[in-house]
């Protein structure tokens, strides 16, 4: 089966600009996650969707970050305006609703903010 | 809140050496425990998991045992290979449809 697809793989922007990342989860996976991985740290959850509803967005900086999953399939994460500290890899993951825990990750989108 | 602490890296070993990467956790309830691996240029992938106390997860020669009494899930391999060079992440997932909580990761380099 096809894995989690993410694009773009790399993005370089100036601070205060905007950027959007796209994720297509594994077919049939109801739950989708966006994680932020800063260099040298473990992934940190930004937002979790179940189908097209938000389950947890408590760590999403809502003044600049937004995410949607309108049809319960693919998802977009947007940052506007970007700050230097947003430089990170943005990981998308998905899992089945009845999962025993395994999350399947995409290769990530590396963002550099100059 | 739930958290995972794993040993600082980087860890550098010679081929065929024994590997241990320590991982301890803090969580309410009875979480499931995981080791994920990230090879250079690739995404995170599950290495092994254990869902209850005293369970042993194993895969590709790696093993980890869920120790509730010491809240630990140390990763071990008896003989590492150059191809094991990667970053290893310990993670937990508490009950219900909750997200994974990761440690900071440990970079392993194996030299021939």
Task: Show the helix and strand layout.
The complex is a heterodimer of chains A (114) and B (112).
Chain A: E1 5-7, E2 10-13, E3 19-24, E4 31-37, E5 44-50, E6 53-56, E7 65-68, E8 75-79, E9 88-95, E10 104-105, E11 109-113
Parallel strand pairs in A: 2-11
Antiparallel strand pairs in A: 1-3, 3-8, 4-5, 4-9, 5-6, 7-8, 9-10, 9-11
Chain B: E1 3-6, E2 11-14, E3 19-21, E4 23-26, E5 32-38, E6 45-50, E7 56-59, E8 62-65, E9 75-77, E10 86-93, E11 101-102, E12 106-111
Features:
heterodimer; A: 114 residues; mainly beta; seven-stranded mixed sheet; four-stranded antiparallel sheet; 11 strands; 0% helix; B: 112 residues; six-stranded mixed sheet; globular
| Annotation field: number of helices of chain A | 0
Number of E-state strands of chain A: 11
**Unreliable spans of chain B:** none
- Give the chain pair forming the largest contact, with residue counts: A-B, 25 and 23 residues
- List the secondary-structure elements of chain A in sequence, H or E: EEEEEEEEEEE
Annotation, overall tally of beta strands of chain B? 12
The overall average pLDDT of chain B, rounded, is 94
Return residue spans of chain A where pLDDT drops below 50 for at least 5 consecutive residues. none
Q: Which range best describes the helical content of chain B: under 10%, 10-25%, 25-40%, 40-55%, 55-70% or over 70%?
A: under 10%
- Span of the ends, CA to CA of chain B: 41 Å
How large is the radius of gyration of chain B? Answer: 13 Å
Describe the structure.
The complex is a heterodimer of chains A (114) and B (112). Chain A is mostly beta strands and 114 residues long. Chain A is 0% helix and 48% strand. Chain A is built from no helices and eleven strands. Chain A has strands spanning 5-7, 10-13, 19-24, 31-37, 44-50, 53-56, 65-68, 75-79, 88-95, 104-105, 109-113. In chain A, the strands form two sheets. In chain A, strands 2, 4, 5, 6, 9, 10 and 11 form a seven-stranded mixed sheet that branches. Chain A has a four-stranded antiparallel sheet with strand order 1-3-8-7, with no helix packed on it. The radius of gyration of chain A is 13 Å and the shape is globular. Chain A starts with a strand and ends with a strand. The N and C termini of chain B lie far apart (41 Å). In chain B, 0% of the residues lie in helices and 49% in strands. By secondary structure, chain B is mainly β. In chain B, strand 10 and strand 11 form a beta hairpin. In chain B, the strands form three sheets. In chain B, strands 2, 5, 6, 10, 11 and 12 form a six-stranded mixed sheet that branches. A four-stranded antiparallel sheet of chain B has the order 3-9-8-7, with no helix packed on it. The interface between A and B is medium-sized, with 25 and 23 residues.
């Amino acid at each position: 089966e096809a894995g989690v697809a993410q694009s773009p793989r790399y993005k370089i922007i100036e601070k205060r600009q905007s950027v959007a990342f796209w994720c297509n989860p594994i077919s049939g996976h109801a739950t989708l996650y966006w994680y932020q991985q800063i260099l040298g740290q473990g992934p940190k959850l930004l937002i979790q969707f179940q189908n097209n509803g938000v389950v947890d967005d408590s760590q999403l900086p809502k003044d600049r970050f937004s995410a949607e999953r309108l049809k319960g399939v693919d998802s977009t994460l947007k940052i506007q305006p970007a700050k230097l500290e947003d430089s990170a890899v943005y990981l998308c993951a998905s899992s089945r609703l009845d999962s025993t825990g395994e999350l399947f990750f995409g290769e990530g989108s590396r963002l550099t903010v100059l | 809140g739930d958290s995972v602490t794993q040993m600082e890296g980087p860890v550098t070993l010679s081929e065929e050496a024994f590997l241990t990467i320590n991982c301890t956790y803090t969580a309410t309830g009875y979480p499931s425990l995981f080791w994920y691996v990230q090879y250079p240029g690739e995404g995170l992938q599950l290495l092994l998991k254990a869902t209850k106390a005293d369970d042993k997860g194993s895969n590709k020669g790696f093993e980890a045992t869920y120790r509730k009494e010491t809240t630990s899930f140390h990763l071990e391999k008896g003989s590492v290979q150059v191809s094991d060079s990667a970053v290893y992440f310990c993670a937990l997932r508490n009950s219900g449809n909750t997200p994974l909580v990761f440690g900071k990761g440990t970079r392993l380099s194996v030299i021939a």
